[in-house]
User: Fold this.
Amino acid sequence: MENLRINSERLWDSIMQMGRIGATAGGGVGRVALSDLDRQARDLFVRWCEQADCTVRVDRMGSIFARRAGSDNARPPVLTGSHLDTQPLGGKFDGIYGVLAGLEIVRTLKDAGLQTKAPIDVVNWTDEEGVRFGSGTMASAVFAGRYNLDHGLTRADMDGNTMGAALEEIDYAGPEPVGGYPVAAFFEAHIEQGPILEAEGKAVGVVLGAQGQRCFKVTVDGEEGHAGTLPMVQRRDALVGAARMIDAVNAIAFKHQPHPVITVGALKVRPNSRNTIPGQVVFSIDSRHPANDLLADIADKMRRTCEHIATDAGLGLSFEQISHRNTIEFDERCSGDIRKMADRLGIAHMDIYSGAGHDACNLALCAPTGMVFVPCERGISHNEKENARPEDLAAGCDVLLHVILERAGTV
Ligand code: HGY
Ligand code: MN
Ligand code: MN
Assistant:
């Protein structure tokens, strides 16, 4: 069993095949959660899992659980997985690697005729990225009990459509209750999305934790008017106000370096017409910091700054926090297992913290949780150019295989 290894070529081929669903002209993937492309990716994943003798269940948040039975199915399952949804202009690896690494593990166990004591669930968490509904990792947050089901299903996009309705539309509003049962452990494999492992020449990162995050929806209300006739001094231009706010929150980040990081990445202008003065702008703020109290201070600063700008310009303002997750530390026993298995397999590794958020950050609240990072080229992610080396993906997957085998126990 110690000599068991995953099939690197099969893992790579599956990632490439999945990358064809929503492939972009720039070589990446655009497969936003709950789109028809997401449905196609889910269907392919389900087909592959069934071919690997897994039984597939879908919960009410649309997360998919592909179970490889153990010899004792009364034992809590060992979960592994990540997400198949991507950024609008994303890559082939962010999230996808973790889901397909889980699939590769159950395929490897099937080939080897190996049975575990506890069942293994390969999971695809719904809408990790939060592109359309604003707050990511919502399905795993409901699973972990951070939010109730109603909160998850009623998240609305900028046009007011809910996540519940979108799940019905793609036929993935499953019947299973969300979470509420014991999980032996959750392990998520993921590309690092930063430059450290590559620079240090390590194939595996043992992730110790992840920084906290607060996301906001800011609505600026002005008044529409004719671009050719309304004098400048009489205007209440929501976009000019929003632009000042965006510049100001960016300046707050620069003033406090090396933390926090603050990003305004989505903006909706109403009515979005060349010759109408913008009457309303809705924009997102994503802020992150490793210290929870400082992240809260930054949130206050941003709110007060936006209020001043709105008042000065005679604009209305709603500054709404739509998600908040504190900094988390992963389970030491899980991190220790990852380190130990990397050593045993002779794979170079180092401890690392995650700048990005992951479903594992939620699972850590309800189950022992660990994460395995692998390097990605020049740390590039959320970009069509995202790339990783087959040998690093295989190394991370081999570590994951042995960590899971030890946790699930073998017959
Ligand atoms: O936003 C994030 O950290 C992510 O990629 N889920
Ligand atoms: Mn991800
Ligand atoms: Mn991502």
